Sequence to fold (193 residues):
Amino acid sequence: MSVPCPDPEAHPTPERPGFAHLGDELRYEGWRISLVDATFRAPEGALFHRDVVRHPGAVAVVPLTDRDSVLLVRQYRGAVDRWLLEIPAGTRDVDGELPAVTAGRELEEEVGVRAGTLEQLAVVENTPGFCDEVTVLFVARDLSPVAAARHGHEEEHIEVVEVPLGDVDDMVARGELTDAQTVLGLLLARGRR
Fold:
């Protein structure tokens, strides 16, 4: 997925010459990600390679209640082999679907609530040192209950947990919230209450 660079300072200039991405050689393709050997040319002309994970992108949603709290999901994450407390999130795996639509769908599927309003908080590059995943963060308000429609083994065991926003800093300090997009989303949403 190619995303326009939002930072004009990152574009090549005479003082900051550009790198060139010359192409990818596919090494592995899974159901959600692929791994490529990407070839680049440095400003001075040298060629170099990097292992890059290609990802279709994701959304993450901070569902704010009218009680000044947030609805989080506790779910098992196989990559780290433990349960994490997170804001609802999901892969942008439906071609052409707008991020806000994906966010609303994920919120309904995982938490069982529909957002009356969704506001985009930020667009973040999760781990640009090796992956091109871009996550669009939203805050959801005016929540109303709907039937959850969870998919997959991990989602079937999700637990929805309501947490007061005032507890977030202490939860981060105690290591109870470690997912980066969750921490960022909560801090940004707290500023938009």
Observations:
- The chain has two domains: 9-54, 58-190.
